[in-house]
Specification:
2 domains; 17% strand; alpha/beta; six-stranded mixed sheet; single chain; Purple Acid Phosphatase, chain A, domain 2
């Protein structure tokens, strides 16, 4: 991951050059110069935004991060639309050679080139609204074989991938907390990637998490971003707020005459940051009572390959953001076995949330955010 980020400036530069050559240069004259200059400004804004997103300074760093992430979101739409246009043009040219068709009229080629920046602006504006609004509540029924009658209708509210940081602040978190509390759930779970910055920077903005209330408690596991930001410090802060942090361990919830195991593991890649935090579903299940429904909180869906043999009935995950915005949701399956929604793996079910916040560009297209209200029912 770090190696990939080191190459990111070069990848972005090549992408910006490509867009400038395809969109700005053909305009000629002053328009070409202005278009190339705007593309350069966009590239610089993205680099500055990334470099300042975790600065200990506030104000100016947040403004730079906002500018950079907005520029990145806009450029992403611009790049994808430019690429799609060139694919269409190539297919048209090949069809003309193969079937003796006339080439695409020059006026249509020019119109498509000039329309792309406006379409990118429209898509970015829609994506910004989708990202910045409070995530809607999505209700999901999960049927578990052998679920005791005392647990039928047991509700779990899942929050994940909040990414409190330069563009997500206290007001955003407070609205999410209020919506979660309104569900009057039996349990609230937070499946990682809560923050994108240090405790020193963000403690004021994560404070509303301490107001989360559920009948049997609020449970949290770490995601990869907690390790980028200092996991030990954040675990201590989450516990100070009254959240139950599960680090390869479990608790037993008693409801009536029935019991439920709520377990949690550290992030799939935590061992690369701390050997003590190596993710271990078997350890999380150790000592759990037999014949009791077992739920595992695991940030990354790919934990499921170790979770199912450990005897869990349901895994709740996040991490993918559902792809967050097109077309990147098509690439998530290259890293994760499932992207979003409810799936089955052997004897276990896996639910993957699309995320309650967002990371990077404040943009959501084709992948809605969600506060998930899961209801357990007998199979």
């Amino acid at each position: 991951m770090r190696r990939w980020f080191a190459r990111l400036p070069i990848i972005l530069l090549l992408a910006h050059v490509y867009a400038a050559v395809r969109l700005a240069v053909p305009a000629g004259g002053i328009a070409a110069f202005a278009g190339a200059a705007l593309m350069l400004a966009c590239y610089v804004a993205v680099l500055i935004g990334f470099s300042r997103r975790r600065s200990q300074a506030s104000g100016g760093s947040d403004v730079a991060a906002w500018a950079g992430f907005l520029a990145l979101g806009l450029f992403s739409s611009l790049f994808v639309l430019t690429l799609l246009r060139d694919v269409v043009l190539c297919v048209w040219v090949l069809g003309s050679f193969a079937f003796g068709l006339h080439g695409m009229p020059e006026a249509a080629v020019d119109l498509s080139r000039r329309a792309i920046p406006w379409l990118a602006l429209v898509f970015s504006a829609i994506g910004l609204v989708n990202a910045r609004r409070r995530a809607p509540v999505l209700e999901v029924d999960v049927r578990l074989p052998g679920l005791p009658s005392a647990l039928a209708g047991f509700t779990i509210v899942q929050l994940t991938d909040i990414h409190v940081g330069p563009t997500i602040k206290r007001g955003y978190v407070q609205a999410m907390v209020d919506a979660a509390n309104a569900q009057q759930a039996d349990a609230i779970v937070i499946t990682g990637d809560v923050v994108d910055g240090s405790v020193q920077q963000l403690t004021e903005h994560t404070r509303p998490l301490g107001e989360l209330q559920a009948r049997h408690g609020v449970f949290l596991v770490t995601g990869n971003h907690e390790y980028y930001a200092g996991a030990d410090a954040w675990v201590a802060e989450f516990r100070r707020l009254g959240l139950t942090v599960l680090l390869n361990e479990h608790v037993v919830i008693q409801q009536g005459d029935a019991r439920l195991v709520m377990a949690g593991v550290t992030d799939f890649n935590a061992a690369s940051f701390s050997a003590r935090h190596a993710s271990d579903p078997a350890r999380a299940a150790a000592g759990a009572p037999a014949g009791v429904p077992r739920i595992l909180l695991a940030h990354q869906p790919r934990t499921m390959f170790a979770a199912e043999p450990a005897g869990f009935d349901l895994q709740l995950s996040g991490h993918t953001h559902g792809g967050q915005f097109l077309p990147w949701n098509w690439f998530v399956p290259l890293q994760q076995p499932v992207v979003a929604g409810l799936h089955r793996h052997g004897a276990m079910q896996v639910y993957v949330s699309r995320g309650t916040g967002y990371w990077g560009p404040p943009l959501r297209l084709g992948a809605r955010s969600e506060i998930t209200r899961l209801r357990l029912l007998p199979a």
